[in-house]
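Hi Y.,

Following your request, here is the sequence exactly as I used it, all 165 residues.
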Amino acid sequence: MGRWVNQSYTDGFILLGIFSHSQTDLVLFSVVMVVFTVALCGNILLIFLIYMDPQLHTWMYFFLSQLSLMDLMLVCNIVPKMAANFLSGRKSVSFVGCGVQTGFFVSLVGSEGLLLGLMAYDRYVAISHPLHYPILMNQKVCLQIIGSSWAFGIIDGVIQMVAAI
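Below is the corresponding structure, written out as tokens. Let me know if you'd prefer a different format.
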């Protein structure tokens, strides 16, 4: 009597359910691409305006430009791959690709969350201690805020990426 053995093998995840090239899916894909384009253009424009206008060279706008950069990278992490898979008809992603994409996603979301919390602290200091604000929020402190938000987000993402891979 023979034994049945499952010898199937796949080198990635098979994606099901979000897009199947029906009329409704084309509309949904178009909406996603419009939102992606608006987010892309809006974040690039915000970073450009903050860089070009000398009146916006304050720490609050520097934090906003970093937040826009993180958001830009976050949007560009997922949507282009999704669009490429939809347009090519491919319905799979490799294990390593999924792990790397998850790592970047977690890094950027973690960095954004930390930066938003630290930006709230910046506004608290500006409102509660307006005369001490230039002393309390100097260049060193503000660069530490940016650096720590990026560093802790990246550490979190690397931990998640290693666990996923």
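The first strand starts at residue 12 and ends at 14.

Thanks again,
Q.
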